[in-house]
Fold this sequence. Notes:
- Chain A is built from 13 helices and three strands.
- Chain A has helices spanning 22-53, 71-77, 80-112, 118-125, 127-130, 133-143, 150-157, 171-198, 203-211, 216-244, 248-254, 265-275, 279-311; strands at 7-9, 56-58, 65-67.
- The longest helix of chain B has 33 residues, at 227-259.
- The chains are: A mainly alpha, B mainly alpha.
Amino acid sequence: xxxxxxxxxxxxxxxxxxxxxxxxxxxxxxxxxxxxxxxxxxxxxxxxxxxxxxxxxxxxxxxxxxxxxxxxxxxxxxxxxxxxxxxxxxxxxxxxxxxxxxxxxxxxxxxxxxxxxxxxxxxxxxxxxxxxxxxxxxxxxxxxxxxxxxxxxxxxxxxxxxxxxxxxxxxxxxxxxxxxxxxxxxxxxxxxxxxxxxxxxxxxxxxxxxxxxxxxxxxxxxxxxxxxxxxxxxxxxxxxxxxxxxxxxxxxxxxxxxxxxxxxxxxxxxxxxxxxxxxxxxxxxxxxxxxxxxxxxxxxxxxxxxxxxxxx
Amino acid sequence: xxxxxxxxxxxxxxxxxxxxxxxxxxxxxxxxxxxxxxxxxxxxxxxxxxxxxxxxxxxxxxxxxxxxxxxxxxxxxxxxxxxxxxxxxxxxxxxxxxxxxxxxxxxxxxxxxxxxxxxxxxxxxxxxxxxxxxxxxxxxxxxxxxxxxxxxxxxxxxxxxxxxxxxxxxxxxxxxxxxxxxxxxxxxxxxxxxxxxxxxxxxxxxxxxxxxxxxxxxxxxxxxxxxxxxxxxxxxxxxxxxxxxxxxxxxxxxxxxxxxxxx
Lengths: 312, 263
């Protein structure tokens, strides 16, 4: 057992005491193994099984698996539903992240100013982030309800529409409102990240620019923005990945409907596996998502390095 | 600034107002902003007529066990990883990071089959194990950076005085890491409390399900729902998280900053 754990570097503390105590070594393995076991069985094993299953035909009743090469992928890529879901995923991800950042950076800059009630405002602005997906869905379903919802009532009162609209029963408006709900919930995350970075901006930089007679736009463009950029990129990466894989919010909003109008890729995986009983193609969709995630992370990594370099 | 506050809080205020508004007013043609006869009737109905109370208990039990298990196991693993730099630990660290980025939807189908083989589908024990296994990576990741920030000299000094390493770990290091553990705990609790996907697929009886999955079943059933009751449910689900946030805000911000957290 012990020989399987090769020592790369001895802990500093033991350098002056010669060989590290045997009991320490055993303790370290004892401390880490429950975590290794659980993560392996309930996170890594299922992931590998998923990859594996994407090359098999799986009988949903008996779970019998027959190897079928890339048939699942061929089948999947020939289905318009897959491409439509991919497109909706792209709309969902870009729609939510772009507005989260525009609003989030704006609000963060605002809350950075010396204004009255700033601390209370900072606390309040973060609230949407705490709201669970199911409550988010309940809230927006209620607000948009065609008969009782406040939104329709307001539009009617202002005379903008002549009869109530069932926003969540139409594919396009349903997707639009899921996106709005996503923006609402996650803008606070951007505010939090950007605000934290703003608080450590070097004062000398700002002072020097002001002495040189920079106006506030120039100050933002040449001092604040480059300073924020690395954080913005990291946050953008996290938000893109998390939005792309987001299941709960999108699904609970309209259960993938109407007419697949809110079926993004994760919702499609669920549909294929549990409603259409197409486990192989579901696994293939999941694997395709994984590849897209890896490509995205790689792209951001390059951007991040460039932004860091520009700063120094 | 007022606009920003309104944008963030108005929908929530509306949920709360609607939860204390009698149904007769919600459904009335003319509506006032504040309810004319505020009532807790909706909350009473929620607990009396539906299984909400049971689900709340299920979610509370599941989230508490998961949170405690994740904190304890992740703290031990993170400590081992920060003090013993074995190659195999390093590889495990990379793998947890990968597991952490993994979309849950990728895991859910294989997990269903794994639990099926272990005879743990439709079981709260099975769901708890899944939660622990899938939350551990984030726990380890948050705590590892935290432990690395605690100077090794602290436990060295204690060990010179004759305590064993394990004693040094829980007497000296754990108290130092408390803010990080609290932040990790709150994060794990809040994601588990509201988790929907795993619960909705791995549990299929209404007695054993959790808050999110249970309430979602109201929406898909042809249950003739009362918006007032649903809004009361919304308030009850959000309340623990909002309270946690208000009381433990400073730990959260310290821990999130340290671990580089995401939602």
